[in-house]
Structures are given as C-alpha cells and as structure tokens.
Target: Mitochondrial import inner membrane translocase subunit
Amino acid sequence: MDSFSSPSSSSPSSQMSAEDFMDQLKVQLAQAYAEEFLETVRGKCFDKCITKPGSSLSGGESSCISRCVDRYIEATGIISRALFNSQR
Model:
C-alpha cells in the first residue's frame, strides 16, 4: 500500500507542518533535478566522446568525458547564478 492510501491517519507524516512539507518538497525537487542533470550529462557526454564502446575507455575518451562533464557543471553554475541573481 502506498503512503497516499495508508489507513493510519495518525502517523507522524500526517502531522507535518506546512514548513516541514515545503522543506521536504525542496529536497525532493533538488534530488530529482540532480538525477536528471546527471543523466543528461551522461547521455550527451557519452554520445560526444565514446566513439567505439568497449570494455574500457581510451585516454582520449577519458579526457573528453572529463572536459565534457566539467563544461556542463560550469555552464549549469553560470546559468543558476544568472537566474538566482535576476530574481532578486
């Protein structure tokens, strides 16, 4: 049975304050965003850098993956700072 259809209405989660709920929601959204970001980076960097999949990475592939991930992280940081600074 999932948490939405639980017969126990006196569980601690049903007594959660609005602030606690928002904090939990923020954490879950951050986790979902991080997972989506990593999946996007993995897919795009793999497509760009791995020309012949095998049992190990070549030196060039390893370097390419490292640079690709670094660029995505840097770009995401720049975009995030720009978005958060524009909202103030």
About this structure: Residues 38 and 46 are 12 Å apart (CA to CA).
